[in-house]
């Protein structure tokens, strides 16, 4: 028990201020209730504080202490004090007076007793948290009095306080540095320094800054710069390579230098910043004044020559280096740091590692190589020929040959070849020129030589111009190739992924073929399962009876892809299609997209892709005109003209039709006639009550009078069988009708002799094998929303029936979402909407989940010619007035108590669950929602738990209301709970009223009798129906009042129920009443329906689509007060 409970239960106040209000907290209140002056030097210490409650300790150096408890009774408007001094004065004791003074003067203490100032104070704090507009603002904060200070903290853990100071703090902690990630370096005045390390003597290259004397000489080294720090801020590739190369050389470098070291020196020589270079070579006397300016140059392989001279029986091999038109022997060269050639004021770096190795070898050797003639040919084949791939070899003893007739084997015409091979994950591309029988890589420097008739060797001049053209051609084929020229390789290379990236290889292979370049080695690659040829695609569309037939021929060289393998590739979204030799052809991305459209519009049958003619609009959009043959073009033109113009105005009402057709109904007959003429199906989706059945009857009669009609099948809900029979008898008695239902279906009838076969959905499923034996002229599904689920047994059965024309008939083509259309139109117009997966991905999900208007407009345009829908507001100006109203019922005390207990328990349960847990407990959630709705009707629906609860609010209101209305009106009562109908019926019977009731348990054969009795028996004024059984198809215009006892989640279902009486033939004004219990889930559903909020959409999706997941946000909104 808390201290506040203790005060109320066991302690009496020693003093009470009557008629207390927050605004009275002032010194006037003190003077009014206490005659004592405030005692000097007294103090008050807060022991406990909460809203309207407090415990205080009073102390004084020379007087007794006391403890004072203070509490407020807001209902009785009293402020109570209890002091332990136990004085019983007529006025407030001095201790309580001092506490009252602290409450008045100390704003932090006053906060707990003054609701007005508390609200203002909390709102000020709440503003920083974004809570200032919440209804019960104080309920969002914890309130504590700690160390003589009020502390307010939000109850939502982690809720951010958004102030300028906090935002600045968060920005500083979470946002990146505002400085650009890359910025151009300002290296003005900086130089490149080359020098030996002061202590170890190894090569050091750094950026630095020098100070110069007036005469231009170096005066001092100001500082050095770490290239690594500049590297992170650079974005230009050549500058990045330069800085990365510099960062390699402050560290000791092992000798001999490796390939990366030589490459780094080459990058430094490029010097993209164009900085001056200074060098000093004495590590022992390291002084700034010893730096002198030098130039940097590069030495390439083309500057190096191995000269081979023959003298008697010896061959002399002499290396020479050409620098600035001057030839140097190796003995003349000076190496700096063993990696630069130092000539005058120029430092020469080697372009590649191989040239540096050869020069260094001969420099260290100190002499030429001498080989005896007997060993020369061995050295030539094993070494010189291989060296000549990368270095120039000059055979001084050979002459160039020009006379081909003097050769032992005549030189063949020059041929260009590309060799393909693999190296790990890379494809090697080696361009080669063939000279006679000799093949030379064009990146090689190897000479070509032959022999004359006397056995003497001579050089064959290589076709430098043609080789250069070949090389240029290759370099242009990929952006990676030019930079590979520095690699001193005989080939180019690409990673396998880049080799087959997009269409690169296909484009390159095609260009090689055009250029007549031979390609060798592709069949030996591990990836050679892929065809090197581009796809050659030919498509031709011809016309069939009900289909457009597409023949696809796709070939790669001499290999062909079969249609089924193409379909498999498209379905898997793969760019590789299997060919008839087991290899794979690469399917271009744009064609993969086109084939996705082609296959989504039709289905494959053997080597043909068949697209329903009803999908002519999509066919025209997906295919190119030159793919159509002349017959298809003419047919498409006819369909386009039909979809854009009115029907034949000469079409009249059939002579055998008894009665009149309204203008819009005649338009409907013409529309059905045009569909039949073109061989198309459709969906007649007129609003409920506009006479869809009459239009169908008139159409069938018209077809018979034209002599073009065979036997037609109409499938209807069981409750509508009699209604259809009566309509045929009334409007077209000349049509012969066979009822395939019940015992009559066992009779041995010849179906061909009947104009119309009438059956039910249940019979259609059970007798499917017999129905499949017949091909009907026209097939109509009334209330076709029965097949909206493509997974249902009814849908599968309906699609197996054979008919020339199929028509879906419904007043509510959309009940829950766009996917409702697919089931009905895929039956009536097969192929129009593609397959189920395509429709969901392209239309249903984008429209229903993301609200994409573009997709919605596209869908409406696609189905417009095949769906005819008119509303009452559009075509009927003679319908009587319809009034819809909501009756709010106040629950009795016991019903309210029961509802509040269940709602609180359910809300707590939902709050404690995560989204994932809710998705796994959908059955529990549905049960909780159903219980709340049942209690709104009557707690008696919970059966044994509340068997003694008195009548609920809705039942009491209904009994009184119906008692008054039934004198002059007929009434429909709808509920989704059969037990609720039983309760209402029982009370009506007690009032002496005759009723009828129809639920799911009512036998089909008895339903029509109940409907007829209600229409004809003037004593029966009330018809009770379950929403599912009586909500569709029935015509009950004899009634003019309809009561919806419990609202349904989806308003469309309620509208269907109301339209049982508000339809063609109704002469009286219609009153529709929805019963709602106030401050319950029912009222919240109604509010969400009217607001059409996103939360309501989420809720409806969860409940009506039998999904397995619920939106926690939507459920809590539904349960909020």
From TrEMBL:
PROSITE patterns: HELICASE_ATP_BIND_1, HELICASE_CTER. Residues 673-831 form the Helicase ATP-binding domain. The keyword Hydrolase applies. Transmembrane segments: none annotated. CDD domains: SF2_C_SNF. SUPFAM superfamilies: P-loop containing nucleoside triphosphate hydrolases (SSF52540). The keyword Membrane does not apply. InterPro entries: Helicase_ATP-bd, Helicase_C-like, P-loop_NTPase, SNF2-like_sf, SNF2/RAD54-like_C, SNF2_N. Keywords: Hydrolase. Residues 954-1111 form the Helicase C-terminal domain. It holds the Pfam family SNF2-rel_dom. Gene3D superfamilies: P-loop containing nucleotide triphosphate hydrolases (3.40.50.300), Tandem AAA-ATPase domain (3.40.50.10810). GO terms for molecular function: ATP binding; hydrolase activity. This is SNF2-related protein.
